[in-house]
Amino acid sequence: MSTKKIPLRQCIGCGEMKSKKEMIRVLKTAEDEIVLDATGRKNGRGAYLCPSMDCFKKAVKNKGLERSFKTAIPKEVYETLEKEMEQLG
Fold first, then answer.
1. CA–CA separation, 25 vs 36, rounded Å?
2. In sequence order, what are the beta bridge partners of 8?
3. What pLDDT is stored for residue 89 in this prediction?
4. Per-residue pLDDT tens over the stretch 54-73
5. Alpha carbon 45 to its chain's center
6. Cα separation of 80 and 24, whole Å?
7. What structural domains does the chain harbor?
8. Measuring CA to CA, which residue among 29, 89, 81 is closest to residue 57?
9. What does the pLDDT read at residue 85?
């Protein structure tokens, strides 16, 4: 019996490694839009966040999304993501 490997991802807020299923995927699409990917299956560059507002605030403060996507992120995008995170939490 081989054990199935659990995909781990690092939170861009706290830096902890957790299983992919526990985390929220933030996605940069080909059109340079930044959205939450609830399914985890959409095409594009992904970054992962723990489903807590603390991690979201840390990611904003230490520019985790900017580093992951190698681009500047407008304030409106953070506000939209924050509203979506509150709905999930």
1. 6
2. 19
3. 64
4. 999 999 999 999 999 999 88
5. 10
6. 15
7. 8-88 (3.30.1230.10)
8. 81
9. 82
- 14-54 per-position pLDDT tens digit: 999 999 998 999 999 999 888 888 888 899 999 999 988 99
Contacts of 44 (CB under 8 A, 6+ apart): 27, 28, 29, 30, 37
> What is the model's pLDDT at position 49?
92
The phi, psi pair for 8, rounded to 5°, reads -105, 145
User: Which CB contacts under 8 angstroms, 24+ apart, belong to 23-26?
Assistant: 23/48, 23/49, 23/50, 23/51, 24/48, 24/49, 24/50, 24/51, 24/85, 24/88, 26/65, 26/68, 26/81
